[in-house]
TrEMBL record:
Protein name (record): Nicotinamide riboside transporter PnuC
NCBIfam families linked to this entry: NMN_trans_PnuC
This protein's GO CC annotations: plasma membrane
Species in which this protein is naturally found: Gluconobacter cerinus
Function noted in UniProt: Required for nicotinamide riboside transport across the inner membrane.
Gene Ontology molecular functions: nicotinamide riboside transmembrane transporter activity; transaminase activity
Keyword set includes Transmembrane: yes
Residue stretches spanning the membrane: 46-65, 86-105, 159-177
C-alpha cells in the first residue's frame, strides 16, 4: 500500500460518485486518478491495467468533451440515452476481441501473472467507459460485473486498498445504475 494508491483510490471513488450524479467535476478528478493509478499498476506489473489508465485518460477527455458539448451546466442536466441492441452486440464483441488480442500480447511478451483476466477486464472497462461517456445506463451494469472481478484480481496481487476501492465501486455502480434508470424513466 502506498500513499499514491490511497490518493488514487479516494479520487476514483469521488469521481465515480460524481459520475452517478452526472456532475461535470467527475471528469477532471477521474483523470487525475487514472494518471496516479497508471503508476500504481505499472509498479505492480499489471501492464494491461497500466496501459488501460493511459487509454482511460483519452476516454475521460472524450467524455468530458462530450458532456460539455451536450450542454451540461450542473448536476443532473444531461439526459440518459438508450443503447441499441446492435450497439450492445458490437460493444461486447469488441470487448472480447480486444481482450483476446491483449491477452495474447501480455502472455507472450510480459511477466503479467494473470494475462487473460487482466486483458479481458481492461478491454471491457474501455467498452463500459465509452458507454458511460455516451450516457448509456448499461455502462453501470458492466461496471458491476467488471469491478466484482477486479476485486478478486487485486486481492491476489496484494493491492488491498485498490481491492477495497473496487468493492466500493460495485456499490457505487449499483447506485449509479438505479439513479440513471430512474432518470431515464423521468
Amino acid at each position: 500500500m502506498s500513499l499514491t494508491e490511497l490518493i488514487a483510490a479516494l479520487l476514483s471513488a469521488i469521481g465515480v460518485w460524481l459520475t452517478a450524479r452526472r456532475t461535470m467535476a467527475c471528469w477532471p478528478l477521474s483523470l487525475l486518478a487514472a494518471l496516479l493509478y497508471g503508476w500504481v499498476f505499472f509498479k505492480a506489473h499489471l501492464y494491461a491495467d497500466a496501459c488501460l489508465q493511459a487509454v482511460f485518460c483519452g476516454c475521460l477527455l472524450y467524455g468530458w468533451w462530450r458532456w460539455m458539448k451536450d450542454g451540461a451546466q450542473g448536476d443532473e442536466t444531461l439526459h440518459i440515452r438508450p443503447l441499441s441492441e446492435r450497439g450492445l452486440f458490437f460493444g461486447l464483441l469488441i470487448g472480447a476481441l480486444g481482450g483476446g488480442l491483449w491477452a495474447f500480447f501480455l502472455a507472450r511478451f510480459t511477466d503479467d501473472p494473470t494475462p487473460v483476466a487482466d486483458a479481458l477486464l481492461s478491454s471491457y472497462s474501455l467498452v463500459a467507459q465509452i458507454w458511460a461517456a455516451r450516457r448509456h445506463t448499461i455502462s453501470w451494469a458492466c461496471w458491476i460485473v467488471i469491478d466484482t472481478a477486479y476485486v478478486a484480481m487485486f486481492v491476489s496481487r496484494d493491492l488491498y486498498p485498490t481491492a477495497a476501492l473496487y468493492a466500493i465501486f460495485v456499490l457505487l455502480a449499483v447506485h449509479g445504475l438505479r439513479k440513471w434508470q430512474k432518470a431515464s424513466q423521468a
